[in-house]
Amino acid sequence: MNMKMKLFLVIVLSLFLVPSLTHSQTILFSEVESSLMCTCGCNMVLTSCQCTTADKMRSKIKSMLAQGKSKDQILASYVNLFGETVLSEPTKEGFNLTAWITPFIAIGAVGFLLYKAVNKWSGQRTQNKKIPDDLLLEYGTKLKNELDNFEDGDKT
């Protein structure tokens, strides 16, 4: 390969690699930004907050990404500075695991209680509506006689 061909390949490859790196950094930046809460006290996710504190945090995240730090490293540095309250969602380990599990347990318990209550209510209705056999026999006989008399009366 001659020198011009090598230079051409380097230029072409750089044209394809540079946009993909910036695109991946943009995606990584938005992931980090949505994983953090603003530290100004507004209790908003960093992506939603427009204060100067949020702007400072964004510029620091961009500089950390430019240094080659990963999402986990950036989040860990913010947790070291501000504690776990800086994260937009609790970690899925230790005591914080209850924040992830409790809603599902509560939904399951309420569903089970509703199931039991509906079964109890529907069971009471069927028990109350049961007709005694002697009453059924008495009225069944009367109904049969009336239907027989009704059919006989139509023929005349």
Descriptive report:
The protein has 156 residues and is mainly alpha-helical. It folds into 2 domains: 1-89, Helicase, Ruva Protein, domain 3, CATH 1.10.8; 95-156. The chain is 74% helix and 0% strand. It is elongated. It starts with a helix and ends with a helix.
Features of the shown structure:
mainly alpha; elongated; Helicase, Ruva Protein, domain 3; 156 residues; 2 domains; 5 helices; single chain
Number of helices: 5
**How many domain modules?**
2
- Sheet-strand content, in percent, reads under 5%
Distance between the termini: 117 Å
The whole-angstrom Rg is: 37 Å
Q: Overall mean pLDDT score? A: 80
Order of helices and strands: HHHHH
Q: And the CATH topology of the largest domain?
A: Helicase, Ruva Protein, domain 3
CATH homologous superfamily descriptor of the largest domain: Cytochrome C biogenesis protein
Biggest beta-sheet profile: none
Portion of residues in helices? Answer: over 70%
CATH uppermost class of the largest domain? Mainly Alpha
Provide the structure class: mainly alpha
Flag low-confidence runs. Answer: none
